[in-house]
Specification:
The chain is elongated, with a radius of gyration of 23 Å. Helix 4 packs antiparallel against helix 5 (about 140-150). The two termini are about 35 Å apart. It has one domain: CBS-domain, CATH 3.10.580. Strand 1 and strand 2 form a beta hairpin. About 35% of the residues lie in helices and about 15% in strands. With about 150 residues, it is of the alpha+beta class. The strands form two sheets. Strands 3-4-5 form a three-stranded mixed sheet. The chain has a two-stranded antiparallel sheet with strand order 1-2.
Length: about 150
């Protein structure tokens, strides 16, 4: 004989998900920024001082015009070695990456992860209404994924 339930009809339970999943929840807001006319030597010094590997380049009006990274600085170091000259005091504009992929502040971290995979970048500027509001890195996405995993497996 089967067991009969006497609890009656139950309403289907839908688990609500309240974990933050937007880029704006995990991005860095306080950024070290650079200018196109700043010297590449000064940029390298700031990289070591703040223990960063790159950052956005903003024009005089605060608009994003590029990104400078350690890889861009390697070009300067390599050229100085090739021409047997000391590292020159060239500007950021000569070495920065100008075609910058950006992401909106309200993009999910899952979609942002896809952008990282597609464009093979270490960091992406985060924009809101055409203005730079932060930056998110691959590490930030990994941290977000770990926090989301902790939310789901209580």
């Amino acid at each position: 004989m089967g067991i009969k339930s006497f609890q009656g009809f139950r309403k289907a339970f839908k688990k609500e998900y309240h974990a933050p999943i937007l880029v704006s929840d995990y991005m860095t807001r306080k950024l070290i920024t650079f200018t196109p006319d700043q010297s590449i030597l000064n940029v390298m010094e700031l990289f070591t001082k703040y223990n960063i590997s790159g950052g956005p380049v903003l024009d005089d009006n605060g608009f994003l015009v590029g990104i400078i990274s350690e890889a861009d600085c390697m070009k300067q170091i390599s050229e100085s070695r090739y021409f047997n000259q000391p590292i020159l005091d060239k500007s950021v504009e000569s070495y920065m990456t100008k075609g910058v992929e950006t992401i909106p502040h309200d993009m999910s971290i899952f979609d942002a992860a896809g952008v990282f995979v597609k464009h093979n970048r270490r960091r992406l500027p985060v924009m809101k209404d055409g203005l730079l509001v932060g930056q998110i890195s691959r590490k930030d996405i990994v941290v977000a994924a770990l926090k989301l995993n902790a939310q789901n497996w209580k």
